[in-house]
Amino acid sequence: MIRLTLYGTSACHLCDAAMAELAPLKANGLQVREVDIVDAEELMTRYQLRIPVLRREDTGAELDFPFDLNRLLDWLQDVLAEEG
């Protein structure tokens, strides 16, 4: 099972848009954990100018927004191909 983390923060309209793109995949069992970067100084330093950022927990690969469903599927496929 692929597990993803979406780094963002509250009141971030781009983060809401990213979650909307992920919704069809979540409906099919993809696990997405949301992390508010405000809760950790290290995350603020790393992501504050990039959010939202999607990260695969198994490989550490990251995808910066903007992305749509097709781009997201291509990224997941690319990461899967690199593993295989």
Q: For the record, what is the CATH homologous superfamily label? A: Glutaredoxin
Average pLDDT rating: 91
Secondary structure: number of strands:
4
Strand residues, percent: 15-25%
Number of helices: 3
- The poorly predicted ranges are none
Shape: globular
| Oligomeric organization of the protein chains | single chain
CATH architecture: 3-Layer(aba) Sandwich
Give the C-alpha Rg: 12 Å
Number of domains: 1
CATH topology: Glutaredoxin
Distance between the termini: 15 Å
Listing every helix as H and every strand as E from the N terminus to the C terminus, the arrangement reads EHEHEEH
Biggest beta sheet summary: 4 strands, mixed
Share of residues in helices = 40-55%
Describe this entry's structure for a reader:
InterPro entries: Glutaredoxin-like (IPR008554), Glutaredoxin-like_YDR286C (IPR052565), Thioredoxin-like_sf (IPR036249). This is Glutaredoxin family protein. This protein has 84 residues and is an alpha+beta fold. The chain has a single domain, classed as Glutaredoxin (3-Layer(aba) Sandwich). Helix content is 44%, strand content 23%. The protein contains three helices and four strands; from the N terminus they run E-H-E-H-E-E-H. The chain has helices spanning 13-27, 41-47, 69-83, and strands at residues 3-8, 31-36, 53-56, 62-64. A four-stranded mixed β-sheet has the order 2-1-3-4, with helices on one face. Strand 3 (53-56) and strand 4 (62-64) form a beta hairpin. The protein starts with a strand and ends with a helix. The model has no long low-confidence stretch (mean pLDDT 91).
